[in-house]
User: What shape does this take?
Amino acid sequence: MLDKETISYEKAILVGIITQNQSEEKLNEYLDELQFLTYTAGGEVVKRFKQKMDKPNPKTFVGTGKLEEIESYVIENKIDTVIFDDELTPAQQKNLSKLLEAKVLDRTNLILDIFAQRAETSYARTQVELAQFQYLLPRLTGMWTHLERQRGGIGMRGPGETEIETDRRIVRDRIALLKEKLRTIDKQMAVQRGNRGALVRVALVGYTNVGKSTLMNAVGKSEVFVEDKLFATLDTTVRKVVIKNLPFLLTDTVGFIRKLPTQLVESFKSTLDEVREADLLLHVVDISHPEFEDHIESVNQILKEIKSDDKQTIMIFNKIDKYQPEFFDVEDLMIERSTKHYSIDEWKNTWMNKVGENNAIFISATEKENFEEFRHKVYDAVRDIHLTRFPYNNFLYPEYEDAFEKEEDSE
Ligand SMILES: Nc1nc2c(ncn2[C@@H]2O[C@H](COP(=O)(O)OP(=O)(O)OP(=O)(O)O)[C@@H](O)[C@H]2O)c(=O)[nH]1
Ligand SMILES: [Mg+2]
Assistant: This one.
């Protein structure tokens, strides 16, 4: 008999620290995100541990007292996994794995794990595998204790440096092999991109879970995987889209996240080539998310890393249907009015003002609010790019208002 869908979640606890650079408020935001990541990876968070410290303990990340507290909680509550918000050093990971009776993961681990679960094409799998091996390489010494226990026996007097070296070499060889494999696929992909001809290229970029794929589906009438979990999209999807007779290429890309593991940015660089080669970026923002400004900041940071920060960009403030300012009580003298209490119209008068009318749009991809305006803006931008390239094609693409809707595209 078939069981009703029973998902067994691993029991997890989260650990984070409050430092001079990371206030308690900030930590809470990060832990909220870490909890969402855990859930995406198949875990259920039952408790959070926080500690205030000047800087992380180089041996155990948190202090000894806190670690004891965590340890007894783990034992009493049969916790499977302890997840640290920051990337642990190889030494910390090694020590913590010894001291705690549970799997020890950090944010990077978790993200890599989700990526591994979700990678579908051989290209995405190769990229994730490469990132995983790069993460593993400096941590091999920590793993040795496990291997050692398994092997034991004659001639195994502790982990000899030579054996660690052998393991390192195997991993290094594997890394070299994966890089070679990626290079080959990259070449093929570059050829494919080259074959796409003169069409203007538009790429959807943005933080994870902001609605990029939803928007792609809404514009392109395509079916891209949408889910209320993080990193629903790992592979880039390119679709030919037509707005009022004007064809262009629209790319959906992997979402970005704060504290993105450097190995991942590195190995996903080729996926991000689509972004690098785009003529126009649509930077999608989930305006209903309390930290959306932070999200924009980290997306811009990554765009800079891949040298795409100077591209023409339209900011798409999505999910306006869900946007809810915090209630501001005028009589409560303890609370100062801040951006949390802003209406969308007030937001428009902040720095958003400087983005320029043509480069910002407020929409709801699910409710199709302001969708006509969105199509208009994208049409104008794509048309401008097209006309700078092919001035003689002027007659082909008139002003938006005068352009005819292609039959298949009309509503
Ligand atoms: N309320 C509301 N929800 C939306 C809107 N647009 C998207 N969503 C929801 O947000 C969630 C994430 O949407 P996706 O389209 O998968 O987001 P994404 O940016 O592609 O995410 P990744 O691929 O994970 O980076 C889904 O549950 C969508 O239904 C919107 O305008 N309003
Ligand atoms: Mg997506």
Q: What stands out?
A: Residues 1-6, 144-159, 407-411 have pLDDT under 50 and may be disordered.
